[in-house]
């Protein structure tokens, strides 16, 4: 056991060197937003898709674009609009006049990084097409099924304001996103830096730090990261606390309509592993679970009308769960 | 109707027609119907020669009437008795020392004795005795009643009772009650409540009742004959035993609860003393004490628990000394918290962070550090505690 943990630690330290380099490289263009960059990497390393919520102008698109450049991955941005069709996303069969045959024409989804901008503006059928591809990692055009390229990461953005004329994602579809991250405004110093960088007339170029193959290799290492029994039980306790808060001494009775799903337990474990990898550790500690807990749980806890009437958010509830459930 | 068809009715068909004849008179009482039914059956069984049922009924009624008449004539005396008894119910005045119903009294007695009556100028004086039990257990009570009845005369005589002598019995209570009936009859009941004191035979010797007839100086007397009662062994009473038992149980309970209460009090006192002692200890003292107690875990080879203990000691120290809410926080969270509150603290968070990190590593990987590593973390913690204490003393 001792040897394997130590070996794992060494392995993780070796494989995760690129993380710091990558953060530095992205930091050339993106000021602040380490939180968002880390979450994007967690999603990338643990095969999870990310829903990003934030007001316009917070460099969501630019961050994803920059990250894709540093990893040498194909990046596609799809603006979701009410008139978008599933075929616009996945592709369609195109008729070739020369030979009189139909050939599949792959849509923008055939990329490594997909930025589904304002996903809630497109109708449900388009959202479903994307979410199906996210889940299955394959797309069917005509009679042919095409596997999507690996790594495959969907980053969907949602605008918390301007809800008129939108198609909010149903809870079942939101649950398919591993993380829901909320991007907030930068602080004063960060904004000043952004101002300096963006008004200098020349946006710095970023270099490729890691290849897609190396990312796939890193993903394998992340899978091998050790998660102790205590941590697994802690994760289960956290998820169950959202379902039966009374059993954990939480005063949340009547505030939670639906607790977190088993997907939450799975994603908490996977994301905690990826977080440990980012910290160059070969094992998971409670800190890893707590660090990503809010992002995994916030969109999985459905509140009651009573909670909404009390102006409580799912974040308040999740915070209370993490504060009260005993840390091993 | 029955008369018209009666001649044609044979024995077998009769009940049907009887029912037919009875059905039109629903106003008759069930008792009457039953009586009539019995009569009809008797009639059919035994008196085939009588042609009509009505004549049979008439005969029965006349017979009954005659019997009643004869019996009334024959038992004229008992009729008087009945009249007398019924007159008891017509009480116009009653003076009693106890609230007793004389009508009930006349039926209660087991042994009613009537003694010769004295007649003087149309006045009848009669004495009866009554005893409720002839066989009693020692200690039981028995009621001996002497009933004096005066019938006739303008006014009740003055009766005086000379109490009987008692042997094996003891007088508990004596009282009398007078009753004047509407017929002019006067009755006095002397009630003697006696208690059997000796086993064997209890004897009530003959009592005397004196009375004076108005306008006569002569004092008459009535003698009430003696009465014997069989006194059996005293009933075994469990009352005493039960009371002793209850007292014993109570004594045991009191002593048990008293003892346990005293014990509890002692324990509480000890707990209070220890708490006070603990309260007087500084966070440093407590941390050092707990750290020393962890040595046993090292000896037992329970390394993971030892590291958990070290982490707990540090968390408690930070909580008690700096009032930092660290008990339910991970190492990284504590480090972040210390960074936020660095101005309030006398130590640098980088001294604490490695200790937490090492503890977490052992806790969540299951690795077993060697003895030197264990001593090292202990040493680091002691150094941190000492440094913090020295800084405080210098200040």
The helix-strand sequence of chain B is HHHHHEHEEEEEEEEEEEEEHHHHHHH
CATH class of the largest domain in chain B: Mainly Beta
Distance from first to last alpha carbon of chain A: 20 Å
Radius of gyration of chain B: 53 Å
Distance between the termini of chain B: 134 Å
Major beta sheet summary of chain B: 7 strands, antiparallel
Quickly count the helices of chain B: 13
Largest sheet of chain A: 5 strands, parallel
CATH superfamily of the largest domain in chain A: P-loop containing nucleotide triphosphate hydrolases
CATH superfamily grouping of the largest domain in chain B: Immunoglobulins
Q: What does the overall shape of chain A look like?
A: globular
Biggest interface and which pair forms it? A-B, 21 and 14 residues
Tell me the CATH topology of the largest domain in chain A. Answer: Rossmann fold
Q: What is Rg of chain A?
A: 21 Å
| Top CATH class of the largest domain in chain A | Alpha Beta
Model description:
Chain A is of the alpha/beta class and 328 residues long. Chain A folds into 2 domains: 14-198 and 209-213, 3-Layer(aba) Sandwich (Rossmann fold), CATH 3.40.50.300; 225-324, Helicase, Ruva Protein, domain 3 (Orthogonal Bundle), CATH 1.10.8. Chain A contains 14 helices and 11 strands. Chain A has helices spanning 2-15, 17-29, 34-45, 60-71, 86-90, 124-136, 171-174, 188-198, 212-224, 229-243, 262-278, 286-297, 305-309, 314-324, and strands at residues 50-53, 75-79, 91-96, 101-106, 113-117, 138-141, 144-147, 153-158, 179-182, 256-258, 302-303. In chain A, strands 2-5-8-1-9 form a 5-stranded parallel β-sheet. In chain A, strand 3 (91-96) and strand 4 (101-106) form a beta hairpin. In chain A, 42% of the residues are buried. By secondary structure, chain B is an alpha+beta fold. Chain B has 4 domains: 2-74; 90-232, Immunoglobulin-like, CATH 2.60.40.10; 237-275; 283-394. Chain B is 51% helix and 23% strand. Chain B is rod-shaped and about 135 Å long. The A-B interface holds A 1-2, 5-6, 226, 228, 230-231, 282-287, 290-291, 323-324, 326-328 and B 328-333, 360-361, 363-368.
């Amino acid at each position: 056991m001792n040897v394997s943990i130590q070996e794992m630690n060494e392995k993780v330290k070796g494989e995760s060197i690129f993380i710091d380099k990558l953060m530095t490289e992205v930091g050339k263009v993106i000021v602040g937003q380490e939180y968002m960059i880390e979450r994007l990497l967690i999603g990338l390393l643990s095969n999870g898709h990310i829903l990003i919520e934030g007001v316009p102008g917070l460099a969501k698109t630019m961050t994803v674009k920059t990250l894709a450049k540093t990893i040498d991955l194909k990046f596609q941005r799809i603006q979701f609009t009410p008139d978008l069709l599933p075929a616009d996303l996945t592709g369609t069969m195109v008729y070739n006049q020369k030979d009189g045959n139909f050939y599949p024409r792959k849509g923008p989804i055939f990329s490594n990084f997909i930025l589904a901008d304002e996903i809630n503006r497109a109708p449900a059928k388009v959202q479903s097409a994307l979410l199906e591809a996210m889940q299955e990692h394959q797309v069917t055009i005509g009679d042919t099924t095409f596997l999507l390229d690996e790594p495959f990461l969907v980053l969907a953005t949602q605008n918390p304001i301007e809800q008129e004329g939108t198609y909010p994602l149903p809870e079942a579809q939101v649950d398919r996103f591993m993380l829901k991250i909320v991007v907030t405004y930068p602080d004063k110093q960060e904004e000043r830096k952004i101002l300096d960088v963006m008004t200098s007339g020349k946006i710095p170029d970023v270099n490729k730090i890691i290849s897609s193959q190396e990312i796939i290799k890193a993903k394998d290492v992340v899978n091998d990261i050790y998660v102790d029994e205590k941590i697994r039980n802690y994760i289960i306790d956290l998820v169950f606390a959202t379902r039966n808060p009374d059993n954990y001494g939480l005063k949340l009775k009547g505030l939670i309509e639906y607790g977190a799903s088993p997907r939450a337990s799975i994603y908490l474990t996977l994301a905690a592993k990826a977080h440990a990898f980012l910290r160059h550790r070969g094992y998971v500690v409670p800190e890893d679970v707590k660090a990503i807990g809010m992002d995994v749980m916030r969109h999985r806890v459905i509140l009651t009308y009573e909670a909404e009437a009390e102006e409580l958010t799912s974040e308040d509830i999740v915070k209370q769960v993490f504060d009260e459930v005993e840390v091993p | 109707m029955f008369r018209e068809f009666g001649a044609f009715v044979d024995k077998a068909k009769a009940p049907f027609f009887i029912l037919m004849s009875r059905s039109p008179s629903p106003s008759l009482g069930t008792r009457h119907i039953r009586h009539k039914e019995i009569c009809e059956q008797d009639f059919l069984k035994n008196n085939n020669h009588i042609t009509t049922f009505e004549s049979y009924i008439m005969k029965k009624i006349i017979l009954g009437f005659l019997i009643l008449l004869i019996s009334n004539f024959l038992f004229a005396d008992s009729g008087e008795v009945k009249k007398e008894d019924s007159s008891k119910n017509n009480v116009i005045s009653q003076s009693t020392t106890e609230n007793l119903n004389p009508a009930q009294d006349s039926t209660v007695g087991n042994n009613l004795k009537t003694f010769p009556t004295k007649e003087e100028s149309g006045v009848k004086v009669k004495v009866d005795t009554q005893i409720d039990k002839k066989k009693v257990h020692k200690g039981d009570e028995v009621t001996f009643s002497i009933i004096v009845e005066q019938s006739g005369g303008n006014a009740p005589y003055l009766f005086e009772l000379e109490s009987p002598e008692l042997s094996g019995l003891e007088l508990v209570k004596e009282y009398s009650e007078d009753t004047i009936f509407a017929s002019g009859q006067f009755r006095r009941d002397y009630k003697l409540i006696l208690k059997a004191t000796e086993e064997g035979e209890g004897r009530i010797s003959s009592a005397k009742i004196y009375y004076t007839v108005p306008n006569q100086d002569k004092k008459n007397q009535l003698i009430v004959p003696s009465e014997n009662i069989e006194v059996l062994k005293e009933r075994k009473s469990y009352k005493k035993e039960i009371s002793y038992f209850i007292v014993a149980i109570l004594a045991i309970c009191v002593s048990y609860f008293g003892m346990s209460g005293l014990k509890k009090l002692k324990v509480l006192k000890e707990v209070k003393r220890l708490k006070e002692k603990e309260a007087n200890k500084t966070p440093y003292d407590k941390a050092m004490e707990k750290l020393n107690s962890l040595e046993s875990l090292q000896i037992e080879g329970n390394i993971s628990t030892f590291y958990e203990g070290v982490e707990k000691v540090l968390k408690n120290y930070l909580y008690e000394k700096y009032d930092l809410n660290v008990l339910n926080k991970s190492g990284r969270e504590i480090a972040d918290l210390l960074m936020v509150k660095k101005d309030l603290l006398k130590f640098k968070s980088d001294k604490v962070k490695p200790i937490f990190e090492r503890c977490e590593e052992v806790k969540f990987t299951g690795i077993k550090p060697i003895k030197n590593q264990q001593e090292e973390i202990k040493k680091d913690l002691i150094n941190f505690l000492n440094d913090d204490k020295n800084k405080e003393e210098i200040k």
